[in-house]
Design brief:
515 residues, 3 domains, two-stranded antiparallel sheet, 23 helices
Length: 515
């Protein structure tokens, strides 16, 4: 009888965790170019269900954003079942559970001392958002997970899997290479990303990701218990939930439930605290005399405080109001970094920074590896926001994927014809580096690759001296500004080593293209 009860709930929770981890990985893999300019379905559904993202983005944007209204579902279910999302759904929490046994935990620690931090961090994030300083993308668990996998793990996976196949292709006999090509084709279709990519800020992303897992050494689910602001928001909602855990009078105080609780949700009076309990049900399974039960009951009993002192709360609130005035950098002014090129469809820079949650989805889906996380190009508030680096990759003329994957509307979803007219930058020639100008060497690479219907880069003949000192007639490129959309392919394909002879910079003014 007991084993049947255990399977019905605790085992069901494990199956739920496995299901959502697999679903997350499938959606992550589908967040990629697959030979068509159309994502198959809502690959960003986890972000749409995130109430922290919804609250912070709508506070920053000061509008209702329909894309994230699905988070109402999670709010409703939390008010009904409690903090189930952390124990049954969240992929990051499930991965922490999976890796817990691999990380030796210190015997004695500061258990319970940091639980109030998540509430203070939540207060800071929402206050900052209201006063125009985006912070949610640095602490939202889904943003951290997707960004880390995009920037660090996915490129590493491609390299570690592809390297042996590349070696076999070069040295192995024909029958082995044919067999390896069949295997590699299957890996490319189902597991590997579309192509090998490299990103900026790889080390920073890796350190943040590893730190969350390293904190397991301090105490189990340290991130979930003490730091996760989404967990803090769900914990506050869980105080009003109807499903609650109870320890009955038949308890013999064996402390088995306390020892196994991954969230330290059982207090000294042997009460299960709803805002800390993530409904893992381990305590229920291990209780020998079945003293632990979970019941739907109208919340009426007085709960212990959240552990947040009034001084800490007021200080955090005050910091959230004051600090944005000192840290905000008006990146949409004339002092903005001229190399800061946003993806096509990106809204006004100030609104863009407020809406962007730094998830890395647009970088993941970009087929040419053109989008990268920025550092201080838009000030401290712009770290990890996407920017286009033409020397690494260009904006594909027939691609609208970044607008499709953005979960908050920071990048508008454009139809192809509209996207092909969207100006994101403008082009300049450095005649001291351009081969036809500087050395009289023929080169028409930039003109050949220009994708606009009426080419923005054209050629004209001129007589110049070549490296031998002879006068030659050569074609020199020049730009027609009104045709240029700033896609960056000319800079990307420029054969000059190092800094290209043709560069693309940010375009501030709006241009109406004639085609």
């Amino acid at each position: 009888m007991r084993s049947r009860r255990n399977f019905s709930l605790s085992s069901l929770r494990r199956l739920s965790q496995l299901f959502f981890v697999i679903l997350f990985l499938i959606l992550f893999r589908k967040t990629d170019y697959a030979g068509t300019d159309q994502l198959p379905y809502a690959v960003n559904i986890f972000f749409r269900l995130d109430p922290l993202v919804a609250a912070s983005v709508m506070l920053g944007a000061e509008v209702i954003i329909t894309l994230v209204l699905y988070s109402v579902i999670v709010v409703f279910l939390t008010l009904l079942f409690g903090r189930f999302f952390c124990g049954w759904v969240c992929p990051l929490g499930s991965l922490l559970d999976l890796c817990h046994g691999l990380i030796p935990q210190q015997k004695k620690g500061s258990r319970g001392r940091f639980k109030s931090w998540k509430y203070l961090l939540l207060t800071l994030i929402l206050t900052f958002a209201f006063f125009g300083l985006p912070l949610v993308g640095y602490f939202d668990p889904f943003s951290i997970l997707v960004r880390s996998m995009t920037i660090v793990l996915d490129p590493f996976l491609y390299w570690i899997v592809s390297t042996p196949f590349d070696f076999l292709y070069k040295v192995a006999p024909g029958w082995i290479t044919k067999a390896s090509e069949l295997i590699y084709a299957q890996l490319k279709q189902f597991i590997l990303p579309y192509n090998q990519k490299v990103y900026t800020l790889t080390s920073m992303s890796l350190i943040i990701f590893l730190l969350i897992f390293a904190l397991e050494k301090v105490e189990r689910r340290f991130w979930c218990r003490n730091l996760c602001p989404l967990g803090g928001l769900l914990a506050l909602l869980s105080r009003f939930s109807f499903l609650r855990g109870y320890i009955q009078e038949t308890c013999n105080d064996c402390q088995s439930c306390n020892k196994v609780c991954r969230m330290e949700a059982i207090d000294s009076q042997m009460r299960i605290i709803p805002e800390d309990c993530n409904l893992c049900l381990d305590c229920r399974d291990l209780c020998l005399n079945k003293s632990v039960s979970f019941k739907f009951k109208r919340p009426s009993e007085k709960l212990p405080s959240l552990g947040v002192s009034r001084r800490a709360f007021v200080g955090t609130l005050f910091a959230g109001i004051i600090l944005p005035a000192f840290f905000k950098v008006r990146a949409d002014t004339k002092m903005a970094n001229p190399s800061l090129i946003r993806p096509p469809g990106a809204i006004n820079e100030r609104k863009f920074l407020n809406r962007c949650i730094r998830c890395g989805g647009c970088m993941k889906v970009c087929p040419t590896n053109a989008l990268h996380p920025s550092l201080f190009e838009a000030g401290a508030e712009g770290i990890f926001a996407p920017r286009l680096i033409p020397r690494i990759g260009f904006c594909e003329f027939n691609c609208t994927l970044c607008g499709q994957v953005c979960p908050t509307g920071a990048i508008n979803r454009l139809v192809l014809k509209e996207k092909q007219k969207t100006v994101i930058g403008t082009t300049y020639f450095d005649k001291n580096r351009c081969l036809p100008y500087a050395k009289g060497i023929p080169c028409i690479v930039c003109e050949e690759h220009c994708p606009t219907p009426d080419k923005a880069i054209k050629l004209r003949e001129a007589q110049v001296f070549n490296p031998e000192g002879k006068t030659v007639t050569i074609k020199q490129p020049y730009l027609i500004d009104r045709f240029c959309i700033g896609c960056g392919i000319c800079e990307n394909k420029c054969p000059v080593e190092g800094t290209a002879a043709v560069i693309v910079l940010k375009k501030s003014e709006k241009v109406n293209l004639p085609f």
